[in-house]
Amino acid sequence: MNLAAADLIGYLAASLTTSAFIPQAWLTWKTRSAAGVSLGMYCVFTTGVALWLIYGLLSEAWPVVAANAITLSLATFILGMKLCFGGAPRKPHGIGLKDGDFFRHHLTPRLASIEPIVACPSPLLRPCA
Predict the structure, then answer these.
(1) For the whole model, what pTM was predicted?
(2) Residue-level pLDDT at 92
(3) CATH architecture of 3-85
C-alpha cells in the first residue's frame, strides 16, 4: 500500500473516531450535566490523547496529529465541563421553559404563588400556576 492510501485511511479513521466525541460534548453542554462522564476515565483518556499527539508530532504522522489535536480539544472541553458542572443536571438558563415558567423560574415561590384579586384576561399577566 502506498503512503497516500495509508494516509487517506488514517484521516478517515481519525475523522470517525474524533467525531464520536461531538455528541457527548454537545449533550454535556446542552444539559449542563456531566453525570454520565467518569472523571477518572476522562483524566486518563485526555492524558493518553495528549501523549498520542506528542507522538504524532515527533514521528510526523500527520493523520495522528490531526485526529489527536481535535480529540484533545473535545476531551479537554468535556473534562472541563465535568469539573465545572459536576454530576448534577441543571436546566440551562431560558432553555426548555414553557409559557409562564419564566416568572416561576425567576421569582421567589412566595411571589409566584400570590393570586390576583381580579381575574386577568391577558395570558401574559396571569400568575404562574
Answers:
(1) 0.60
(2) 52
(3) Up-down Bundle (1.20)
